[in-house]
C-alpha cells in the first residue's frame, strides 16, 4: 500500500471525519442503545423457513453496518456496528480471493446461508487469505488483518491486502442469522484511494460520521 495519501475520490462525503481509535459507536464515541429488540429474533427465520419450503429461497437482508477505514499510518481498520443492544456479532470474517473467483465464491456463500441459516464466514471450500471465526463475539474496531485475540480467529496468508484480490468483510445478526448480514467488498487499490477521514462501505465511499449515521438508520 502506498504511503502517499491521494486526494478524495468520488462518493458520499457528509459530516466530519472521525478517527480509528476506540469503539466509536457514535460520532462522539458514546455507547449506543439497543435498536433491534430481541423479541424480533426468530421472526425473520420463520419467514425464511416459509420461503425455503417453496421454490424461491431466502437470503438475509444486507445492511450498512460494516466499514473499512485507513488511518494516518496507512493501516486499514475494520468498523463493526451490529443492530444489537449487547453489541455482539456472529461469525465475523475477512476473506480475500483472486478476483476471477469472487463471483463464484459469492454464489457459494449465498447457497450455504439459504440451506443452513447459520455461519456466514465459509468460503465454500475455496482458497482464501484473511481470517474467519465461529460463534458470537463482542463487536470491536480493530486493525483489519489482526482480529481481536479472544475471537480465536483462523488466520491465513499475509496480513496485508494482496494485489488482484477481492476482499469481503462481514458479519451476521448474533441472534438470528436470517435477520440481516453486514458486508463490504473492496480491493487493495480501493484502500489506497481512501482519503483521510473516509471509509469504504457497501454504499461506497463516505465520511466516518456519515457511516455512523447510516449504521444507526439501518437498524
From TrEMBL:
Residues 1-32, 81-142 are annotated as: Disordered. Residues 102-111 have a biased composition (Basic and acidic residues). It comes from the Bacteria. Residues 10-27 have a biased composition (Gly residues). This is Uncharacterized protein.
